[in-house]
Design goal:
mainly alpha, 18 helices
Length: 459
């Protein structure tokens, strides 16, 4: 029933997705409700239900600062980036970030566009694989369907409504999924806490297990840990193409303020509920749980009758698919808009570009499936790696494109290479400093420094 709704939405918007502008950015015509919920739900993924509650369950209240950082920086993203990016991408007639970078930084060589598209595709493949791992885990643990079959089913449905309805279908599906998952993720912890008879068992079990429930730091080391938790994800918002594309698609710049209010309210509610699931799990699973990423799944199947539990657990599908669909479409757009034209030996019409985007959607989905089949890392770690890579590579470029008055193409290329390399390599240094701190900071310095040098030489 749930999948039928998604495909039905895709069919409804089929007739509107005939050209590149409609297929990739919905002709910049989405109202602020759709933009707000679609942007926020495309951010969360199965991480919201599986990865994040597990981290809170294992490490206590200190990890709630991750959620605080997400809210703070997503608000800054709406405030500082959304309206300016919507205006700038329309002015430069661009549907993807690589195209926008090429035209904004005046790169006639095509290097910046090609390089940024390749970097985006690499990290998107890992990000998509993380989402598919979540889908496979859900089908395996709940419905007793093979992990691999679950990945195949989820991918097939997602690809189907993208191919049919393009970004119109993706955005409106995400509106439906965002509202649906919000209701479910708020309901489960409230009901679980009621069944437990209050929070006393949480405090008791946390004490026994040595898990701290202190939210406010009591020493310098805890304060540093909090700052790292805030930065670990929060700093990456400025460079996430699958979120920024929603800003590019809103119907009117004046509606960004309304979208901000709706989106941030939604984000606070779902992150508070996800944090509560992790904390309640400490008291609920007094004898532990084999896989902490299954807290929400196990809690739901324990508390509700099977049919109702099935519908509740569709919320995990909603979270996973709302991220996968946007990332998949943006990645396909990067290939069709930014890579394919460099090698095509023919005149490319808008209709042909849509067909190439559809073909790329299928190919990228298959590649992500292959990665998911062969990786069994934690969802949290996979998402953090891909998120940090995208944020380090593109965050500084977006900020420079919108706020730096004299950037050069050499500065942009140097910054992209620097941020991408840090995103790729930093996690392997095994340091407590989040990737995005050096990734965003060093890349921004490189953009400005190289732009000043090359700008002076050009003058």
């Amino acid at each position: 029933m749930y999948f039928a709704v998604l495909v039905g939405i895709g069919l409804f918007f089929y007739s509107r997705s005939k050209n590149a502008g409609s297929f990739l950015v919905a002709n910049r015509s989405l109202n602020y409700w759709v933009t707000a919920i679609a942007a926020q739900s495309s951010d969360m993924g199965s991480w919201l239900f599986l990865g994040y509650p597990a981290v809170v369950f294992l490490h206590g209240s200190i990890k709630i600062w991750v959620a605080v950082g997400l809210v703070i920086f997503m608000y800054l993203n709406w405030l500082l980036i959304a309206a300016k990016l919507r205006t700038a991408t329309e002015r430069y007639r661009s549907f993807t970030l690589p195209t926008f970078f090429e035209r904004r930084f005046d790169d006639a060589s095509g290097v910046l566009r090609m390089l940024s598209a390749i970097v985006a595709l690499f990290f998107f493949l890992l990000y998509l694989a993380a989402g598919l791992v979540g889908l496979g885990t859900l089908f395996e643990s709940v419905f007793h369907i093979s992990y691999y079959t679950g990945i195949l089913i989820g991918t097939a449905i997602t690809v189907a409504y993208i191919l049919i309805g393009g970004f119109f279908a993706v955005a409106w599906c995400n509106l439906f999924q965002g509202i649906f998952l919000m209701v479910m993720i708020v309901t489960v912890p409230l009901y679980a806490l009621h069944i437990m008879g209050g929070a006393n068992s949480i405090y008791t079990q946390a004490t026994i297990q040595g898990i701290s429930l202190h939210f406010i730091p009591t020493d310098i080391s805890s304060l540093l840990l909090i700052l790292f938790n805030i930065a670990s994800f929060g700093l990456g918002y400025f460079g996430q193409p699958h979120i920024l594309v929603n800003f590019m698609s809103i119907d009117n710049v004046d509606n960004v303020k309304n979208a901000t209010r709706v989106g941030i309210t939604w984000q606070i509610l779902v992150l508070a509920a996800a944090s509560a699931i992790g904390l309640i799990g400490i008291g609920y699973f007094q004898h532990g749980i084999n896989n902490p990423e299954h807290i929400f799944v196990q809690m739901t199947t324990d508390l509700f009758p099977p049919l109702l539990a099935g519908f509740v657990l569709c919320a995990i599908l909603a979270a996973a698919l709302s991220t996968i669909n946007t990332q998949l479409l943006v990645a396909a757009g990067n290939f069709a808009e930014d890579i394919y034209p460099k090698f095509a030996h023919r005149t490319i019409t808008s209709h042909h570009l849509v067909n190439v985007s559809r073909g790329a959607t299928v190919i990228i989905a298959l590649l992500a499936m292959l990665i998911a089949y062969n990786i069994r890392s934690t969802i949290y770690d996979l998402v953090l790696y891909a998120w940090s890579g995208l944020g380090s590579a593109f965050g500084p470029l977006v900020i420079a494109a919108l706020y730096y008055k004299q950037p050069t193409r050499q500065g942009a290329i140097a910054g992209l290479i620097t941020g991408s390399c840090i995103g790729l390599m930093w996690p392997f240094f095994n340091t407590s400093i989040p990737t995005l701190v050096p990734g965003l900071g060093i890349s921004m310095v490189v953009i400005i420094a190289v732009s000043m040098i090359t700008g002076t030489n050009q003058r």
